Amino acid sequence: MIVVSNLSHSFGDKQVLDNLSLTVKDGEILGLIGVNGAGKSTFLRLISGVMTPSCGEVWYDGLPVSKGETRRNLFFLPDDPFYEVAMNCNALFELYQTFYPDIQREVFKDLITFAGLPVHKPLSSFSKGMRRQAFTAIAFAIAPKYLLLDEAFDGLDPLARERFKGMVRELANRGSTIIISSHALKELDGFCDNYLILSDKQFISPDHVAAKISMLVKYQIVFDTEPKRTMFEALKLRHYQQSGRVVTLIAEGDEQLIRRRIDALQPILVDRLEIEPGEILIDTMEELTKGGDSL
Amino acid sequence: MSIEMRYFGYHFWQTRIRLVIMSVLAILYFSQLAEIGADILSLDSMVTAGAILALYIPILEFRMFNTRRNLDTWFSLPIDRWKMALVHVLNGALHIAVVLAIGMIFEGMHVSTNAPSYNIFQLFVYYITILALTLLAYGFFCFVFTQGNSTTDGTLFIFDYLLLPGVFNGIFLNRFYDSSPRYFYGIFTTIGSVSRKFEATFWKQPYHYDSIWNLGYELGGDPYYFAVNLLLNVLICAAATVLMFRMFSCKHTEKVEDVSDSWFGYRTLIPVMAVLTISSVSSLAGYMFRLLFIYVAYVIYRKGVHLKRSDAYVIFGYAVLLLLFSCLAPGEFSLFGIY
Lengths: 295, 339
Prior knowledge:
The complex is a heterodimer of chains A (about 300) and B (about 350). Chain A is of the alpha/beta class. Chain A folds into two domains: about 1-205, 3-Layer(aba) Sandwich (Rossmann fold), CATH 3.40.50; about 210-290, Alpha-Beta Plaits, CATH 3.30.70. Chain A is built from nine helices and 14 strands. Chain A has a six-stranded mixed β-sheet, with helices on both faces. Chain A has a four-stranded antiparallel β-sheet with strand order 2-1-4-5, with helices on one face. In chain A, a hairpin with a 2-residue loop joins strand 1 and strand 2 (about 15-25). In chain A, helix 2 (about 90-100) packs parallel to helix 4 and helix 3 packs antiparallel against helix 4. The mean pLDDT of chain A is about 85. Chain B is built from 13 helices and no strands. Chain B is flat, with a radius of gyration of 23 Å. Helix content of chain B is about 70%, strand content about 0%. Chain B is an all-alpha fold. Mean pLDDT of chain B is about 80; it is low at about 205-220. Chain B folds into two domains: about 5-255; about 265-335, no CATH class. The interface of A and B includes residues 68, 76, 78 and 82 of A.
C-alpha cells in the first residue's frame, strides 16, 4: 500500500504541490491526470524518492521512500529516462540487473524481440517510441510491486499502447500497484481503477467528481429530420455531438427538467446513457484548461 | 552480495577504460622521470600525479549527477544516496591508488638503482602516507565539485579552492606578515612538504631546491607550522568528505542544472575572493578591473546579466571597503592619490 501524507513541495518561493494526501491500495491502477505543468511529474518524483519533499511523507508498506531498501519494490519510469550514449539494450539490462537482481532476462528478451528492437544498436539511435519500449520492457522484466509511470504512452504507436495496457493490467492482477500519469485523458479512459486530477497544487477530490456525475445527464436522441443545435439553447450543454438525425449530448442540471425540454422537441427516440468516468474527467479538465470553476 | 557491492562492481567495470588509460599515462610519466638521473630525482612526481588525479577524478565520478534526466533514474534506484556517492568516491580512490602504486614501483626502481643502501620498505611507507593525504585531498575536492549544480560550476569551484590558499597567503597575509611559515598552505603544498621530508631521508640532505614546491620548503623547515598546517588540512579535508555524503543525501534534484547557490560555492567564494584581493589594488585601473571582475563572476554565478539585489549589495560593499582600504592603507596601496 502506498500512503502519501500531507505532501507539499516548493521550487524556491513557488509552491507547486500543497498538502496532498493519498492512499493507493495494492493491485490498484491509479490514473494521475492533469494539464501540462500541473505537477504530475513532480508528484511522481517525490513519491519515487527522486526529490525530497519540502514537507510530508511517503510510505510504501510502512517504510519511508527515502530509504534505498524501500525502493527495491519500486520502479519509476520517468518521461525521459537515463541512458549512456553508447548504451544498447543489453547494457541497459545489465544496469538494471545490478539494482534489481530478480529481473527476468527472458521476459526482457521476449519483449524486445516482439517490439522488433535491435539489441546491439545504441539506444541513442532509437526513436522516442523505441526507447520507450526498451524501458517498458525493463519495467515488466523487473515486475515490481510498485510501478510509477510518467507519461507512459508518449511515443508509443497504437499497437504498442494496447499491448502495454494489457501488460500493466496483468501486472496489477498479480498484485502490483501502478500509478500512471498522463495529460492524454483518452489514453487512461476505461483503463484505470481510479483517477485523480491534479490541479492548482492539489488533488481534486473524488467526492467532487462523484457530485459532478450526479449533476450531469447524457442522452442519445433521434429526430425524424436533421435538428439544429440552436434547438437545444434552453439546455446547459456540456457536450454536443451530431451525426445526421442523431444527437448525443451531455447536459447539466435537473434531470426531469432536461428530459421535459428534450421531449418538447418531439424526438422519435430518446435514450438515456451512462456517463463514463473519462467523460467527467474530460469535462473537468476542459474547465480547468479554460480557467473555469473547478469542481 | 549487497546492492552496494554489485553497484561498485558495475561502476568499476564501466570505468575500466579510464583506469587503463590513466595507468598507461602513469607508466609513461613515471618511467620518463626515473630516467632523469639520481641527482635531480624528486619524489614530487608522486605528489604532482596525485594532485592532478585528486582534482580531475571528482569531476569524472560526479558529473553524471549534474543532469536532471540522469537523476530521475539514479535517485529512484534501490540504493541510499550516500551509498551511491560512496561507491563513486571509492572507485575514484581505487583509481588513484593504482596510479600512485605504478608511481611507487618506478620510484622504487629508481631509489634501488641510485641509493642501494636505502631500505626500500620506507618507500612503501611513503606511498601509504602520500596516498592517504592524496585521498583526503580527493575527498575534499569531491565535496567542492558536488557543491556545483552543473559540471562547469563544480569545475570552477575546484579551481577557486585551489587558488584560495595562494590568494590568502600571497595577497592578503603577505601584507601583515613577512615570514612565510605563518601562511596557511593548501593540501597539495602540505603533501609536498611531507614528500620532501621523506625525500630528505632518502637522499640524506635537507631539501631539494630544484622543485616547483617552493613555498613548501620553508613550511617544512618549521616543525610547529608544518604540524599545524598538516593537522588543519587533514581536519578540513576529512570534515569536507563527511559533509559531502551528508549533502549528497539531501541534494535538491530540482536545483540541478540551475544556479549553484551553495554556501560553499559562488555565494561565499566571490565575496571572499573580492575581499582577499582588496590589498593588491593600487591604481584606479586595478580598482575598476576588480569591480568588473566581480560583476563577471556574478554573471557566471547567476547565469545571466541581471543580478539579484543581494549581489549588488556585495559589489557595492566591496567598492566601499576598497575605498576605505585605500584611505587607510600605506601609500603604495592607496588609490586616487590619497596618502
